Amino acid sequence: MVKPKILVARQVFPEVLEHLRQHFDVDDNQADTVLGVDGLQARLADKDGVLSSVADPITAEVIAAAPKLRAVCNFAVGHNNIDLAACTRAGVMATNTPGVLDDTTADLAWALLMSSARRLPAAERWLRAGQWQGWQFIQWLGSDVHHATLGILGMGRIGQALARRALGFDMKVIYHNRSHLPAEKEAACKATWVDKETLLREADFLVLLLPYSPQTHHTIGEKELAQMKPTAHLINVARGGIVDDVALISALRQGRLSGAGIDVFEGEPAFNPGFLELDNVTLTPHIGSSSHNTRLAMAMRAADNLIEALAGRRPPNLLNPDVLR
Ligand code: DGY
After folding, report:
1. Which of 75, 96, 101 to mutate to test the pocket of ligand 1 (most atoms within 8 A of CB)?
2. For ligand 1, what atom is nearest to the CA of residue 238?
3. How would you classify residue 140: left for phi > 0, otherwise alpha for psi between -120 and 50, otherwise beta?
4. In the prediction, which pLDDT does 1 show?
5. Which of 22, 155, 213, 264 is a Cys-bridge partner for 177, taking CB atoms 3.0 to 4.6 Å apart?
6. Residues near 269 by Cβ (< 8 Å), separated by ≥ 6?
């Protein structure tokens, strides 16, 4: 029997390819070349499906150049790299990987929060540069995390996992989301819904966990930063573009915000070089879900979505159910 042809757009673990090869004729990209629109158009011309990452633009042009394409399966929970409307118009199913990366991403948000509070990167750079001449009582003073107020903007599964971590630090947890969590979920993580202004005004640590869309572009800009406490810290593990990076850099530079932990950038992998001049920011290269076990689980989930979709069944994490109509 002729197997459906698929592209695995980025490097994945060998066991994922092995799993996929049992079902498909696989074109892999173990060299991990960034394919971009042109590369994807060329490689998808004869493919039935693709396993894609957040860095692969599955645009309307890419979809138009792939007449046999039936499924786009992202190995990520975010899917702003996929033009969902174009997929639906072309009869292509699109999927993501919710659920498997919540705790790992919450761990990274927590690490950035702690790092920003206690100024770890700057203190480490200072020590490595041989500047430590002796212990001093008033030196490298940071902010307390325990008993502080954690504000969460976007209270999905990752937000709730983060709120549970805050319980061990005796924090007050407030959140803002379009909808309130059901009472039992709020009780489980001791989180209270507040309006956005209250969240900005009261949070000592504001963590962003919103999906990116044109509607969430620059949710945190000049105006919002001005509403925050000058002692507060901002943590973004969601998506670049949710924060206006120019406004953030200016607030950090002028001491209108104490610190920031940033894993995602506008226009990444490029980022505003102004960040590099700041000592009150912890920078990481979009590694929120990057633990071995979680990345393997994400790839396997994406593979299983692709197997279901190309077998003509509804994949478990279908993003555009309208395509089935
Ligand atoms: C996601 O899943 O959306 C992450 O940002 C990529 O790991």
Report:
1. 101
2. 5
3. left
4. 86
5. 155
6. 285, 286
Per-residue pLDDT tens for 192-218?
999 999 999 999 999 999 999 999 999
The verdict on the CB of residue 288 being under 6 Å from ligand 1 is: yes
pLDDT exceeds 90 at position 240: yes
Q: In this structure, which amino acid lies at residue 67?
A: P
pTM, rounded to two decimals: 0.96
> Do 165 and 262 fall into the same domain?
yes
User: Is the domain of 93 the same as that of 124?
Assistant: no
Domains identified in the chain, total number: 2
Q: Are 148 and 127 in contact (CB under 8 A)?
A: no
Distance, CA of 171 to CA of 191 (rounded, Å): 10
**274 and 149, same structural domain?**
yes
Measured from the Cα of 290, ligand 1's closest atom is 7
Ligand 1 site, residue 206, Cβ cutoff 6 A: no
- Residues spanned by the domain of 12: 5-98+292-324
Q: Could you tell me the CATH number of the domain that includes residue 9?
A: 3.40.50.720
User: What would the pLDDT profile of 32-68 be if each residue is shown by its tens digit?
Assistant: 999 999 999 999 999 999 999 999 999 999 999 999 9
